[in-house]
Prior knowledge:
Layout: H1 23-32, E1 35-40, H2 54-70, E2 73-74, H3 98-115, E3 119-124, H4 132-143, E4 148-153, H5 154-157, H6 159-162, H7 182-191, H8 240-243, H9 261-281, H10 290-293, H11 298-306
Parallel strand pairs: 1-2, 1-3, 3-4
Bound molecules: zinc ion.
The site of zinc ion has 7 residues, from helix 2.
Amino acid sequence: xxxxxxxxxxxxxxxxxxxxxxxxxxxxxxxxxxxxxxxxxxxxxxxxxxxxxxxxxxxxxxxxxxxxxxxxxxxxxxxxxxxxxxxxxxxxxxxxxxxxxxxxxxxxxxxxxxxxxxxxxxxxxxxxxxxxxxxxxxxxxxxxxxxxxxxxxxxxxxxxxxxxxxxxxxxxxxxxxxxxxxxxxxxxxxxxxxxxxxxxxxxxxxxxxxxxxxxxxxxxxxxxxxxxxxxxxxxxxxxxxxxxxxxxxxxxxxxxxxxxxxxxxxxxxxxxxxxxxxxxxxxxxxxxxxxxxxxxxxxxxxxxxxxxxxxxxxxxxxxxxx
Length: 322
Ligand SMILES: [Zn+2]
């Protein structure tokens, strides 16, 4: 791989995670770089050979590589997420109701904004791409303050790399991307080999198919652009707990870390480009001009941007709850 893998920084004092930094560290960081990546994962059964926190580890390790290359900051991951209907009931899959999840994410966005990280990349590691953008929209509508908030769903960035060989002859994968399968397990093995147990992985026994013919409903990450996104339906396939009790949909036994490398290179190139372009356009402390992006009066915006430590006031004095 073009980039060096991360050995894991969740409990390290290496300046990557906000929660592992002191007040003085953050004050210095904000002068140089005020972008924060928020990894959004889930706690979910990933079969016998993969960890329950796979989605959160995927995006936190990805964020660690980007932060190391660029100097931005990372939030400790969101470990509990939203789940599509077909995942209900699987033991070990912890389902947060959509409204609670969006409220929580919006509060996290608000807290980081108030801390000075007003450019945020929400990096999603789980099939909850239908929910996260709501948190961004609600934050914007409730507060109307200038901010740069971007949702990045990692599979969307690298669609061609995730397709099976039948749909992309240059792909490294034999089977299509789905939950805990050959593709996801390969990314997990590449990014955190120490947490995967290849000898315990087992494939789905049942034939994988929905109730209608192929081509209506998309698969993992919506990489085939089928008319109906995978999570935009219910009743067109069986519950995982009934159909795929192995906790995987596909063949994780085919997983190899090396298969993920071309996609990871492309993903990191993109994320670094996104980071750099945001920081170039809006250097530390600079945001889109209030007159372009809000109808709030300039005095209110100025006071909120200054914050309580610099002669202004907090975001919470403007609106609560956020
Ligand atoms: Zn997963």
